[in-house]
Amino acid sequence: MTDLSLGRHVAKNKNIADHSASPDINPHAVTGAEILIEQLYKFYAEVKVLEDLDLHIQPGEFLAIVGRSGCGKSTLLRLIADLEQPSYGEIKFKSARHIREGINSDDIRVMFQDPRLLPWRSIEQNVQLGLAKQDQANASTLLEKVGLKEKAGFWPSQLSGGQRQRTALARALSHKPRILLLDEPLGALDALTRLEMQNLIEKLWLEQGFTAILVTHDVSEAVQLADRIILLDQGQIAKQFKVELPRPRQKNYAFSELEQQILNAVLAT
């Protein structure tokens, strides 16, 4: 199978509007999937959340989605994750490893604002959740990478909010996803812990080369992490911004100028 379609309705013949400017993906080993979204609509009864949305996400790209509450950010993420079905349109994937190799739900992981850990399992057991026995050693390696090796035997209730989110990140990456979806995972953290988590997410993305999509209300966070930022407004892509700042990113004049430009665009919607 060349690709996996999440849409139950086939889109009409229409060229895919490539909203990307073919962003320069970082020169890490890319294992992520290419995502093509065509004529995507999502309705809840009479409420139109997404309308005729076309989007092309490159393999290994880090995309951030910003916009006001209710603009369709999280809905788009849930549709990509196959947690919901489109009202109309298609979402298609292609593997960066081989054009004929398909992508399925096991290749996609979601990290939510709530870490959603099982309270009756240890931290290590939470990270190992769903892994085959031969892959469980990878969980220990990831716990070490997120700085929780010494807390592997702890219960979730014994950890801070930031440590629980680190555990959730390790759990998501233990499955070696081609696509990691981040639905405001750092929104509840304090400022310092949030910065540490941003650095950790970027480091692991550079190491593993998955395609990352971040939904966030924090424009600074989007500029810090993304290759490209899209602004959603009333279910459509209103604007997009290519982030050409070198990594690791410093909050200098160029950073602040782009951040303000995007913030002004959000406020204008």
TrEMBL record:
Keywords: ATP-binding, Cell membrane, Membrane, Nucleotide-binding, Translocase, Transport. PROSITE patterns: ABC_TRANSPORTER_2 (PS50893). Residues 35-259 form the ABC transporter domain. Gene3D superfamilies: P-loop containing nucleotide triphosphate hydrolases (3.40.50.300). GO terms for molecular function: ATP binding. Transmembrane segments: none annotated. InterPro entries: AAA+_ATPase, ABC_transporter-like_ATP-bd, ABC_transporter_ATP-bind, P-loop_NTPase. Belongs to the ABC transporter superfamily. This is ABC transporter ATP-binding protein. It comes from Acinetobacter albensis.
